[in-house]
Amino acid sequence: MSARIVVLTGAGVSAESGIPTFRAVDGLWEEHRIEDVATPEGFARNPALVQEFYDQRRRAARAAEPNPAHRALAELEEATGGDVLIVTQNVDDLHERAGSRRVIHMHGELASALCTRCGAHVPWSEDLADGPPCPRCGASALRPDIVWFGEMVYGLDEIYEAVETCEQLWVIGTSGNVSPASTLHALARAVGAKTALLNLEAHEDTSLFDEVVLGPASVVVPAYVRRELERASG
After folding, report:
1. Helix ranges restricted to H, 8-134
2. Is 107 a catalytic residue?
3. Strand 108-115's sheet: what is its strand order?
4. pLDDT tens-place string over residues 212-223
5. Which of 70, 95, 105, 107 is catalytic?
6. Average pLDDT for 96-101
7. How far does CA 160 lie from the centroid of its chain?
8. Residue 201: half-sphere exposure toward Cβ, Cα within 13 Å
9. Phi first, then psi: what are they for 149, rounded to 5°?
10. Bridge partner residues of 107 (DSSP)
């Protein structure tokens, strides 16, 4: 999978659509310990709690709307003939609903369920707490199709391949502290790609970014997309 521009997006992009960021400063996630709702062990201990937690998040994501940052990235993909790949840490579908077609959800998706019996990944929009059957095997063994702590992220080979061959990497709305996403800008820089950070706050180390633009994603991303399209057409 290749693209001239690879865009890594994080929680800061969806926050302006009303979706809470992943973790608060007190280490809790919407009043739950991370260990209780975002690990395989937490699911094994209390599956009902975990299912209800993600059912609520799924409903919230369904009610949210794409913001100008999502729409600008979709417009960039269309204007470049699809030469853009979005690698997102977000589990909502706001990029797709804005019009983006080339999206890798490295941490999974709320709009999908994973069968722990047969391993199927199935599109899903309803609650899972009542134990619905898997559409593939019929077992009541569905869990959120979310990559929890201790599990392997999705699409890593495709992501690395895209970054190794891209001309630009944009990092938007993410702290850059979670591996392997935190390694992508260093890889891009190593292969000679231009790197840009578009974020509400600067990272502790911005030395590997050629450009840093600070501000809300809904403001800085549309402006950066416009500038890129003007540069490409000029």
Report:
1. 11-15, 34-37, 40-45, 47-63, 68-79, 94-98
2. yes
3. 121-123, 108-115, 142-146
4. 999 999 999 999
5. 107
6. 98
7. 15
8. 5
9. -55, 135
10. none
